[in-house]
Amino acid sequence: MQKGFERTGEGAKMKALVAFFSASRITREVALALAEVADAKLYEIIPAVPYSKEDLDWRDEQSRSTLECKDKASRPQIAKDIEISSYDIIFIGFPIWWYSAPQIIFTFLESHDFKGKVIVPFCTSGGSDLSNAPRDMQNCAPNAVFKEGRRFNFGTSKAKLKKWLESLEV
């Protein structure tokens, strides 16, 4: 198990946070494994108003998730926030919705000062990659340093996550 991240050239350990939003528990499973492998604190981004099954029906043009994704200014409220000032690197996980991150991820990003922080997005999807999410996320946290993220499937092994972490240059 990796015990924190080596900060390039400094030898100091980076304090990591895995923040995630999971609508169907798939992203949650990946986030739990990633937090363990990265020796990171885990924080779940929980909406103040939980999503029902009907809210998540992407085939319904009037479902809550569809309407939120069509309204780029939509910012669903978060139930309980976290103080991020002590973290150096923040992994942000989410399912891909309409070729980007769910709007609640943008709520999280716009609620904090990420100056000097490294953000590494990761998503879960059956087939879509990160698509527009990194660009959209950078617009919400322009002072952060973004590293290339990755898509994972349900059941991604800890060995695969560890290999990914080792490939990151932070």
- The residue ranges in which pLDDT falls below 50 over 5 or more consecutive positions are none
Counted by DSSP, the helix tally is 5
Output the helix-strand order.
EEEHEHEHEHEEH
The average pLDDT score comes to: 90
Record field, number of beta strands: 8
Radius of gyration: 15 Å
Give the oligomeric state of the chains in this entry, treating copies of one chain as homo and distinct chains as hetero.
single chain
| Strand residues, percent | 15-25%
General shape:
globular
Structural class by secondary-structure content: alpha/beta
Q: How does this structure look, described?
A:
With 170 residues, the chain is of the alpha/beta class. It has five helices and eight strands, in the order E-E-E-H-E-H-E-H-E-H-E-E-H. It has helices at 26-38, 64-70, 103-110, 133-140, 158-167; strands at 5-6, 13-14, 16-20, 41-44, 89-95, 118-124, 145-146, 150-152. The two termini are 17 Å apart. The mean pLDDT is 90.
